[in-house]
Amino acid sequence: MSPLLEKVLAEVDRLDLQEQLTVISHLIGRWQHPTNQLPKTSFSRQDLFGCLRGQIVMRDDFNAPLNDFAEYMV
Predict the structure, then answer these.
(1) What is the percent of the chain with per-residue pLDDT over 90, rounded to a whole number?
(2) Would residue 41 count as lying in a domain?
(3) Which long-range contacts (CB under 8 A, 24 or more apart) does 67-70 make?
(4) Which pTM value belongs to this model?
(5) CB count in 10 Å sphere of residue 23
(6) Domain coverage including residue 11
(7) Based on the number of CB atoms within 10 Å of its own CB, is 59 exposed (0-12), middle (13-18) or buried (19 or more)?
(8) Mean pLDDT over all residues of the chain?
(9) Please, what is the end-to-end C-alpha distance for the chain in angstroms?
């Protein structure tokens, strides 16, 4: 058993019975439905190309030096 799992189980043992059941049901739910997988989508990258056009604006002075760093830019 991994050290992290041992630590988690030791912390769960300190909880009361209802909280232990809540943690266990949460872990079972996470195990049955992993959230680290990307959902299957029906659109392609081509559909997303240009979808934010006109919503993001760069200021004219974007590359200008910042006043906050003036003392470092000698």
Answers:
(1) 16
(2) no
(3) none
(4) 0.38
(5) 14
(6) 1-34
(7) exposed
(8) 84
(9) 56
